[in-house]
Structure formats: structure tokens, C-alpha cells
Amino acid sequence: MSFKILKKCPATGARRGVLKTPHGEINTPIFMPVGTRASVKAMSPDELVDLNAEIILGNTYHLFLRPGMDIMEKAGGLHKFSSWDRPILTDSGGFQVFSLKGLRKITKEGVHFASHIDGSRFFLGPKESMAIQRTLGSDIVMAFDECTPYPCDHKQAEKSMLQTTEWETICRDQKLGEGQQLFGIVQGSMYKDLREQSAKDLVNIGFEGYAIGGLSVGEPEGKMFEVLDWTVPYLPEDKPHYLMGVGTPKQIVEAVARGVDMFDCVIPTRLARHGSAFLTNGTTIPIKAARYREDLSPIDENCDCYTCRKFSKAYIRHLMNVGEILGMRLVTMHNLYYFINLMRQIREAIAEDRFAQFRADFGK
Amino acid sequence: MSFKILKKCPATGARRGVLKTPHGEINTPIFMPVGTRASVKAMSPDELVDLNAEIILGNTYHLFLRPGMDIMEKAGGLHKFSSWDRPILTDSGGFQVFSLKGLRKITKEGVHFASHIDGSRFFLGPKESMAIQRTLGSDIVMAFDECTPYPCDHKQAEKSMLQTTEWETICRDQKLGEGQQLFGIVQGSMYKDLREQSAKDLVNIGFEGYAIGGLSVGEPEGKMFEVLDWTVPYLPEDKPHYLMGVGTPKQIVEAVARGVDMFDCVIPTRLARHGSAFLTNGTTIPIKAARYREDLSPIDENCDCYTCRKFSKAYIRHLMNVGEILGMRLVTMHNLYYFINLMRQIREAIAEDRFAQFRADFGK
């Protein structure tokens, strides 16, 4: 068993666990910074280690197009190519190719698509996705799924979910690399019966972990929590549960309470590049605003990150407003520290039997 | 005496020295990375310390406009504002305002100009430049001068040089901050008689150091060396000599041979952002080129910088070509390491009486 639950919250569904991978253990619940194109935007691998990022995410679609799989093969995989020797999870590329509206054609075998870069034509299906992720050498491989848009009627959602299950069966049959773990992805839009069926079908196939896909696609936040309430109970308790592409600090706390162990999201890095910096309570401040022009205090007096220990809001505001790269670097570092530290606090709260209180107090 | 010469080259004009400043000593000959807007582009202050940058340069014109002197005053100067506690040299702002062709009007008192950002009107003269640099709190303050374009006829060059001397006299009369050193700037375009007169006049005024301005403005390289040959002999031997805005590795080696102790230039940082990376012999390679697509070796096998120890040309090329910030960071770090390491090699060569050989071998 590569996943071990160390502690369960007596009052909620929260779990404190450890997942073993070929590149080391990760402590759950965990947040995975997003390194779409073989780099977590604005950060170096050593800075991510300093931030105590235990695992990062890479995107199959982007890496397949650039730098391309010939180079990745020659380099010996994504870890060596990007000098990152901790665990990596890669997505299947499905989400990205389905987003290429007007540039893609879906068949039962997969998706024909045109590159968003130069229009070159490619095909991506479950077999291709597995082959690419095998070359990437990620520790956790995601099954190839179709992510339905929101809203989506029941008929379309069912058809898509059944197609996903078929593809995931094919994924399961492909040969993976040494130690690679395959996670299945539950779909079914916002429908209880479809989520239930998808979860049951995937459990029948059998995966090393289970992701909940198709959320954070525009639905109201309450709907996201409802889908988690329906879905997680059908997932094996002794396997990791991963909520894809989510979310805000509050959404993460709420999903942990519902039994989710893993998260990834571009929020901390993307918001940083636009100048939004997280505060302890999970809200953000717009660091470029005129009111911080002469503010010589750090972003967050209570934060111990490099940015907050060394630099003022006035300095960071100046850097962002004149377009100095260091500005984006400093806010990115602060925001990632915030998310990684939030997960540490969540893990400690679960370990110390006070997660329900942590959840109740969060954001106040 | 704040400047001490430790060793002179027996065969050339090169000197190995130490300059004391309120924020620590710097070892000469030295290269100063350029931090125009309170940040050396793409670098953090800690990375500059890791690179062993002993002093950086700040630009009065840019800092005067943004973030502005009210904030700088409140922050307690440029060191505190930018979290850099090693020495800083600031230019006078003269070079930048004279470059604002069509946006500036020169009088005997100084320069009326319109901000390149929003057109707001300002005035900068010798008194204003000294007041700003006093607020910035730089360790080395540059006198306010006029830099003539190239080519420039003798009459215009003479008039400009005399105006500069007048302004530098005013600068000398201004009250500076505790420990701040004022450097005069020799002008006189490419004319021997004018350079001689300018140097003599400045020595009469008396400064803590002497800069050679008005070079690297488009003249042939041989002309630059000729002007150095004429000018340096008129500068006090026991004061630091600073060649402003220069240059390429070869130009630096040649200027050191002519008695220059200090250099600043945007070449390593600017070229890095365009993907040009320095090799041991002082040439550059275009890291974005297709020929490096599958090249898994470092930029320079002989380089010990962070970039070369950890990353391949193929990875850096990928990052630069997809526009990841880390790409610019890694090449900037490598190029600055190259320049700082070049100066260390020059200092060692002088100390060990083998600079003439180092110069003869350089670039081969």
C-alpha cells in the first residue's frame, strides 16, 4: 500500500495521510503548485524546496507540444529535464484539448486537435496520454477523461461520463513505468446518479487513487461541495482523493472536511502575477493599489515567508507597477508559502483532533 | 583615505585596490550590476549576495520619478527600501535627462524635462541631483554632468565640458550625507585637449573618485581606449577611477590595463533577457537557437554558477522560448556570475603579477 492514513478527524471527513512515490513521500492533505510548462511560474526548483513544496504538477498537453517528447525522452523525463527531484503529478491532457473549442474533433478513440501555438494537427487519446506520461516519468499519472462544461444537461453528462469510463479502462490496461501510480477521475457533472455510477465504475476498474474532476468549471461554490458530499463516500477510503483544479483557501478547507487529500490550483501563482497577495484569513489585497504607496509594512505581519521577512508593500508595489520581475517573484513566493503553510496547519489540526474548530474559525 | 591600492601591475596600468564605504568594502577592479529601478532586473538581493556582487548601481532619474523621493525619504533611503545592505553607487540623472531628446530644455542651471512616463514637468540641476542622491543615501554619489553625443564637434564638446565643470563645482559645494563620497566625471568627447583640461579642472576641485564619462556612446572601440590612454594619466593615482557604462568583457580587460578600477554596464542583464549567454572567452551564444533544442549540456561546462550546475541549454532554451520567467532569471544569473567572476580573475591576476599575460590570453 503506497497510501497510509495516519489520523482521521472524529468530527468531519478530514484525513491526515502519507503517500509514497518513487521520488519521496508526500504528506496529505497537500497542495500541489502548478508547473504547466516544466516550471512553476517565476520560481526556481530550489525556491520550491525552500517553500517545502513536496510535489508539483505538470501539464501533459503543454509539454507534449513544447519542448516535445523527443527531448523529454532524451533528457530521461520531466524530473531530470527540469532539475526537480521531488514527486510530480501530471494531468492527462484531456482537460486542455477539450478546451480547444473549434480546434478539436472528438471521436470514440480520442481527440483530434490543432496546436494553439502553430495549428499543427495532433491526436490525443487514452493510449497516447499514457505513453506521454510514461515518457514524462511522473510519479502520479492521471487517466484520460472528458471534462464536461457547466451547465451540461443530464443526457450529455451521462454520455460523456460513460465515454470517460471507457477511456479510463483503456488507460488502466496500458503499461506504465516503474513505480508510476495511476489515478482515475470521477466525472458526471452536477448529477448525483452519474457521480455515483462513475465512482462505482472506476472503483471496479481499480486505481491507486481517485480524482474528482469536472468541478470549479463555473458552478456555484455550494454545488461543488454538494458534489463532493455525493462522491467521496463512493471512493475507497484507503486510497488518496484528489480534487482537481481547486481552489480558494476556503474551498480547500471545506473539501478537506469532506475527505479530499490532494489539491492543485493556479490561484496562488496566477493571482500573484496580477498583484493579489493572500492574507492569513484567506482574502487577498491588491498590492498595486495607491493606498500601499507609502506602506512600509510587509504584506502580512504574521507571515514568515522570505517576502514578508524582507520587503515592504511599498517596495513590492513599486516593483509591480514599474514591471520589475522581482515583484512577481516576491508575490508568487508569498502566495505559494501561504497555500503550503495552510495545508501544514490543516494537517496539524487533524493530527491534534482540532480540525473541526480550525474549519469553523477559518476566514474569521 | 577610503581607497587603498594593494598592488600595481608592473607591466600595465592595472591596479588591485580596496574602497571603503559606509556599507562595507569593495574590491577593485570591480563590476557593478545595474539596478535601475531599485532592482537588478530579475534578481533578488540575496541572489546578488550569493553571486558575490559587492556593490550595485541605482539610477537617480528613474528613482526620482518612481517610486519618488517622498517614499524614499520615509523608507530611510534606497538600501532600506530595497533590502540591500551592501554599497550602492547612484548616477546623477544627467545622462538620462539629456537622453530625453525633444522632452528637455537645457539652461545654465540644469535641465527642464518632461517625464517619459506621463509627461509631468520637472527640473534637474546639480543642486537637485545632490539632494536626491542624499535622500537615496548611496555610498558613492556621482556629480551632475552633461554627456555629449557622438560625434560632437570640438566647439560643442568644449562648451559642454566647461558647463559640466561648473555644475560639478556646485555639486562639490553641496552638503552630502554621513560618509557619502562624491565622484567627479571627466568629459570632453573624443578630444585630447578637452579631456586633459576637464581632468585637471576636476582634480583642482577635488573629489573622492574620478569617473570617465561620455564613452561607449557609439564611438569605435579603439577610440574609447585612446581616450582612456589620454585621460587616466591626469587622474590622481590614489583615487578610484570609474569608467561609466562600459562594457564588454574585452573592453573591461583593456580598461583595467589602462588603470580603470570600476565598471557598470547593462550588458550582462540586458543580453540575458534576450537569451545571449556568455562563454569563458567573452563571446555569447544565442540560447534560444534551434541548435540547442536537444542540447542537454550546460551553457558553459567550465562555469560553476547555479544555472550551469543545475540546468541544460535545452531546458533554458525551452523556458525562454515559451516565455517562462525562470529562463530570464537563469541566464541573468549566469551572465552576472560571468562578469563578477571575470573581475575576480582580473584581481587575482594583478595580485599574482600575471595580469599582462591574462590580458594577452583573454578571449582566445
Features:
homodimer; 364 residues; alpha/beta; TIM Barrel; 2 domains; 8-stranded parallel β-sheet; 3-stranded antiparallel β-sheet; 15 helices; 16 strands; globular
What's a concise summary of this model?
The structure is a homodimer of 364-residue chains. Chain A has 364 residues and is α/β, with parallel strands linked by helices. Chain A is built from 15 helices and 16 strands.
Write the layout of secondary structure elements.
Two copies of one chain form a homodimer.
Chain A: E1 3-8, E2 15-21, E3 24-28, E4 30-32, H1 45-50, E5 56-58, H2 60-65, H3 69-75, H4 78-82, E6 88-90, H5 94-99, E7 104-106, E8 111-114, E9 121-124, H6 126-136, E10 140-142, H7 154-173, E11 181-186, H8 192-205, E12 209-212, H9 221-231, E13 241-243, H10 249-257, E14 262-264, H11 267-273, E15 276-278, E16 284-286, H12 306-310, H13 313-322, H14 325-351, H15 355-361
Helix pairs in contact in A: 6-7, 7-8, 11-14, 13-14, 14-15
